[in-house]
User: What shape does this take?
Amino acid sequence: MKEITIETKIGVFESMALVPEPVKKLLEAAKVARGKAYAPYSNFAVGAALLLDNGEVITGNNQENASYPSGLCAERTALYYAGATYPKAKIVRLAIVGGTMHGETSTPVAPCGACRQAIAEYEIKQETPIEIYFTGVIGKVIKSNSLSNLLPLIFDKSQL
Assistant: This one.
């Protein structure tokens, strides 16, 4: 057996004050969207904001359901709305803010596996990477230049 090493590079902003202004605005839109999340079961609210190449900003938040598999994450809520409303637009940047509703989460909240797969589909479709920024309610902000840094071995249409 041959072993391979997979490396990933991400950026870390130690505080929101160090984040570039256009990204701060997108993170603020995600924070506002987070405030509208419906999360009565997990009490963990997440907001997402997408910047499209046409200048539109699309937001989404997690929507839970008593039948847990029927809920939807913030990232996919925003992605699918953007895809349905602006099918030819490319996603330039994605910002995610998440954390418990009972305190200030300081650990950056990365996209779950299902959301990573959905983001991968859009990167492949548009043939350009999507910058991804994620944070907790307070603290560090993580930057990935592409979904491939967060999910290096993707499942895509070439395997079908």
The chain is about 25% helix and 20% strand. The helical segments are 21-34, 74-85, 113-126.
